[in-house]
Amino acid sequence: MSASCLGKSARSNSGERASAVIAGLGTCLPSHSVDNAALVEVLDTSDEWIRTRTGIESRRRVTPETSTLDLACEAARNALRSAGIDTVDGLVFATTTPERPCPAAAPEIAYRTGQGNILAFDISAVCSGFLYALATAGALITAGTADSVLVVAAETYSRIVDPRDRSTAVLFGDGAGAVVLRAGPADEPGALLAHDLGSDGSGADLIRVPGIREQPSGERWFTMSGRKVYLRAVDRMADSVRRVVKDCDWSIETLDMLVPHQANARIIEALAKRLGLPPERAVCELARIGNTAAASIPLALAGAVTTRRLTPGARTVLTAFGGGLSWASTGLIWPQLAAVTSEV
Length: 344
Known about the structure:
Elements: E1 19-29, E2 33-35, H1 36-40, H2 47-54, E3 58-60, H3 68-83, E4 90-94, H4 106-112, E5 119-123, H5 129-142, E6 148-156, H6 166-169, E7 174-184, E8 192-199, E9 207-208, E10 223-224, H7 226-247, E11 257-260, H8 265-275, H9 296-306, E12 315-322, E13 326-333, E14 339-343
Parallel strand pairs: 1-14, 4-5, 4-6, 11-12
Antiparallel strand pairs: 1-7, 2-3, 6-7, 8-13, 9-10, 12-13
């Protein structure tokens, strides 16, 4: 971004130091859907096995002509439309599946969406990536470095998951989601009220894709130690949610909606039970989308907003767990906005 924007003190209209406020929400999904019946033809599994263990009926997959960047740019444009603006001061992009290791994808997303020479960079925190990007973008706003930031998450896990591996091939789908953050007062609906971020590198091998040095030749597929990940995910997300609820001066009883990473239905159900939340207060939007990793939370938000399950004024906590190991949670009062969605 231009030097004149650096170091300025972000202020709300009232003159108070600004918070970061969600002002727009957009998503993009591939139009191609792969249902369980199609996977049953090539894997040793059944529709019943997939549904009962994951809650997934189908998942979206990109065609060879569609890239992670294509999904990201469309979701970003949709978020801008939702916010009613054309440009922002910065862009933070979360993904595990970029088109290439170098350079970062965020500057190209900024260029392709007409943002000019703004600050733009990538974040890699696997399924926690969107919330890590959200916290980072929010900090740019509260520090006065930017007045508005696009937070984009996009994944094409269909390109890194072994199609012969029943444990992962049935889970993952492709998709993208984005939000616009802008400066605003801390008491405005949509303001990010609290964050909790954490990691545990002792579990690095539980969710991984081997690198070139580790595996110089051959196929390098995504792998996951399912049972160990399940147990740690529920523990870490539950603790993280409780910390954010406390920091927001709420209680679990007064929490209106929990929007977790859409890993699978069993984890979402177990997390709600651990927290003592009724199942209807935990958003589960993965039945026809699958696990879209970093993109899953904005996609779940869009689904819940569209069906009016998530309504303005709701005390809301977003939470995720992913490779690293990493986890994150964010608390906010949900604002009045319409999600803009599309397919490619």
